[in-house]
Amino acid sequence: MAAFEDLPEGCISTILSRTTPLDAGRLSLISKTFHSAADSNAVWDQFLPSDTNFIDSIISQSPSLANIPTKKALYLALSDRPIIIDNGKKSFQLDRKSGKKCIMLAARSLSIVWGDDERYWNWIALPDSRFPEVAKLNHVWWLEIRGMINTLALSPNTRYGAYLVFKMIDAHGFKHLPVDLSVDVEGSNRSTKIVCLDPNVEPMWHMSGRRNRRWNRHNSRLQDRVVGLPRPNIRSDEWLEIEMGEFFNSGLEHDQVHMSVIETKAGELKLNFFVEGIEIRPKEEG
Q: What is the reported pLDDT for 48?
């Protein structure tokens, strides 16, 4: 019986193209024939998004991609770092392991209540942001941010998570504040959650004396509002993120995905909150 690696290189390429980029990399170590097959355009063309018009559009917006010689090199470039598209209003990247699409909606592509009123929000450049500008909250009592993306822009047969990406620099008003997050796919279930956007879990301090006991009770009531709520994590790019919800994209329908961040009930003044955007990326399997 012939060994697997004795198959013609074309057959091996066909087999590898039905795996994943991660598997193809591992299998390329079997032999020289496998290595050659794993580097072929036939394999990596299958790992790139099937919508060639979409890829052409990405390349046209990033001239450095135009002269990449092979499909594998193109795949690695598209998965290496975010590519800014749509005049700075979105970024695109492939997930390195799966080849699934990752999209971030910049703050400029979101609907922010009073976002164009400089009394409440400013648009500024930050050196550690991927986008030309981010939204800086000056002060509001009513926080409402909404984003929308069509499932056509995403990979089919994929479970996605939506993540609010932000920073707090000398922020005020979020420490004891529950915030409502939601992800709603038209014609499907709505995913909702209540979170605390402040990343710091405040310790419980207790002080003696009558006045301090009253302060302790008041502070305890405030802390009770956010005890046990999900809090943001620090990303590799040093921004904060918190999952807003998840959904499954079958790819059979072209539905709108609506995402929201809302806090309008507490009457709490909020300030120094920086919004980079909302990232929609594949959930890790397993």
A: 92
- Please say if the pLDDT value at position 181 is more than 90: yes
CA distance 183 to 186: 10
Share of the chain above pLDDT 90, in %: 65
Question: What's the whole-number mean pLDDT along residues 36-42?
Answer: 90
pTM for this entry: 0.88
